[in-house]
Amino acid sequence: METLGVDLGERSYPIYIGPGLLDRLAELLPALAGKQVLVVTNTTVAPLYLDQVMSGFEGLQASSLVLPDGEQYKTLDTLNQIYTALLERKHSRTTTLVALGGGVIGDITGFAAASYQRGVDFIQIPTTLLSQVDSSVGGKTGVNHPLGKNMIGAFHQPKAVIADTETLNTLPERELSAGLAEVIKYGLIRDQQFLSWIEDNMGLLVARDPVAMTYAIRRSCEIKAEVVAADEREGGLRAILNLGHTFGHAIEAAQGYGQWLHGEAVGAGMVMALDLSARLGFIPAEAVERGRSVIAAAGLPVLGPANMTIDTYLEKMAVDKKNIDARIRLVLLKTMGEAMITADFDQGLLRETLHECTAQA
Ligand code: NAD
Ligand code: GLY
Predict the structure, then answer these.
(1) Is 80 exceeded by the pLDDT of residue 247?
(2) Which helix (H) or strand (E) holds 205?
(3) How open is the CA angle 331-226-148, to the nearest 5 degrees?
(4) In this predicted structure, what is the pLDDT of residue 258?
């Protein structure tokens, strides 16, 4: 097992990564505020892992709530089901919520924890690659609004992240690729050496080699923890974790949540960010090709959907949390392995990128 820390003063917490951790929960759990525990999961993950997880809470007043599965359920209505369960079961402020599942369950459960009785503790047990390398770490929680993704939420750090790498064995291939998008992101924004390692080891990663996978998760979490520790509430630096996400969120929102997976949209979105970085003269054309190749090798789309117009992109991109005074701000690459955030780019070049990076009908 690998143990990392997210260093946030009194809100610091450990990230445990390794095989077989679901069987070691009792040993890994942080000190709980009370005896009440609500494990929130979904209809796909429950039959796979819920019993195993519940046995880690023996001796406590633990129960579970199984939500419907899908990004389309990351809504205020679903969130309300968590509040209802907590109230019906008389959970007080010393309760602990446990998110067992991917990023959707993690984000929504985290937001329930941030807001129930003005804030209770929660633990992340991420079971997708994407949630193990990204969404379970850093305390961003929330739900979608029909007019924008993740628009309703709060920063609320978990008390621990327990990532059992064996859970990845049941993950569908498409979901594995979606997680690899975020792994590639870390290389592109912050660590050129890691990017080269990913390129060299993509075959092993796609084949779910446990050693390669554990290294990729560890290095990704290290980078995320470093950035979050430096800028927890995204005053500046943390925005670099959103490389490709402004384009990606536009794709997800325009296609209807759940059609394109978040990681797939980020894959195509990162190609767009690379393309624009090249048009602005920051990186050479070969770097765009290099990015495109590694993203394609992960089994991800490298073009946006054919049914999206440039105006649809611009309309959706205008609703993004990075924007200031309604001006689109984008994460771009200064060089490979180093990101920057800027609103200072020619709209004509952005249009060229969107045209170039969209599939032809
Ligand atoms: P997800 O939660 O929808 O999970 C993907 C699918 O895999 C679901 O059908 C799920 O039920 C299933 N699944 C989960 N674990 C499984 C397992 N071990 N075996 C088989 N199936 C399993 O999607 P995701 O990619 O994990 O997360 C995407 C979400 O995360 C998006 O809503 C995105 O906005 C959010 N996100 C949040 C942050 C953050 O910092 N909070 C960062 C990145 C993404
Ligand atoms: N996934 C982006 C962030 O956590 O800031």
Answers:
(1) yes
(2) helix 192-206
(3) 40
(4) 76
Write out the two tokens for 204: 């092993």
What three-state secondary structure class fits 119?
Answer: coil
For the entire predicted model, the pTM comes to 0.95
Structure tokens at 75: 């809504």
Fold of 173-359: Dehydroquinate synthase-like, alpha domain (1.20.1090)
- Ligand 2, atom 3: closest residue by C-alpha: 241
CA torsion 226-217-240-319 (nearest 10°) is -130
Q: Is the CB of 224 under 6 A from ligand 1?
A: no
Mean pLDDT of 83-106: 98
Catalytic residue among 58, 88, 90, 118: 118
Q: How far is the CA of 182 from the centre of ligand 2 (A)?
A: 10
- In 56-108, the DSSP E strands lie at 61-67, 96-101
Whats the size of the chain, residue-wise?
361
Q: Is residue 323 predicted with pLDDT exceeding 80?
A: no
CATH class of 2-170: alpha beta
